């Protein structure tokens, strides 16, 4: 009798680089969350040839010669305040349909290796941390030491820090929130930094001097994965066709950790600011309407985003466009996280520093200057890929 077919294809590429090839670190803030777990498992699956790199822009031909670190060269670690091991977290995601059935077992070794590199995060909301009280500078020192230790022990050619933790409220008293402590630690450790969340991160005024002098590349803020991705396409469409948008309202239904975090009105306000900014930037002015976010725990890691757009046509004819986006945020975000990690690592390797406005394609609220339309942002991203490609060719010629 023949064996039962496997739910996963046979690997077609090696899962690890040769021992002489450089390796690179990806340090995830929120390392045991859904996005981080999906990114770690997905990286291992794509590197092994178990799944195609769907959603990974850096795996398209425009980036083929840009000298980006191979997926198999990436080593994962991070900070988190949760203690659920990555293999168990991956099993939960598979049960919810986020990860393919059988994938957690297929990449178990990679999940265990990454989980072994996760260090305790903090400070926790409400000051529930144990041990002696720490100042902001103490926290930054501890986090930076963790990142440097990770980089040194694995003899990594470079490390990038990516914030994929739950959204935090905007700080009201000028204090450094956890996201800003992690961002400062990344810069203090000499690492590039990506804020994939709406949280404050490097946008805190107290970190402006550090960001300017750190000599590392950084990008963010708030990954553009679903509803706002669509808005950044539709907004320019209305503007280019001279159709006046009267109102643009939206609703998000989501569960999981994001749903719980965004049930806090202050956290939801931080999230919605980016969604509304895209409309103001692409339409020239903010239309009437708001975005509402509802926590629906039964939806798990899935979400539904609905938009209602009222606009005027020729001779004042009133029309409406409605859109529905249903998807899994973790599966939408994870390939972008891997893209950004590779781009920042390559940029750092080539001596590129400061805010990378060229990566606005990935964000609701990009750092630096750049267009708001997705099409124009994609053109900028391809120019950046060409710049890295030219730098790679110049380096090869010098050698």
From TrEMBL:
Gene3D superfamilies: Dihydrodipicolinate Reductase, domain 2, NAD(P)-binding Rossmann-like Domain. GO terms for molecular function: inositol-3-phosphate synthase activity. Coiled coil: none annotated. Residues 1-22 are annotated as: Disordered. Residues 226-330 form the Myo-inositol-1-phosphate synthase GAPDH-like domain. GO terms for biological process: inositol biosynthetic process; phospholipid biosynthetic process. Residues 1-20 have a biased composition (Low complexity). It holds the Pfam family NAD_binding_5. Belongs to the myo-inositol 1-phosphate synthase family. This is Myo-inositol-1-phosphate synthase GAPDH-like domain-containing protein. It comes from Streptomyces gancidicus BKS 13-15. The lineage of its organism: Bacteria, Bacillati, Actinomycetota, Actinomycetes, Kitasatosporales.
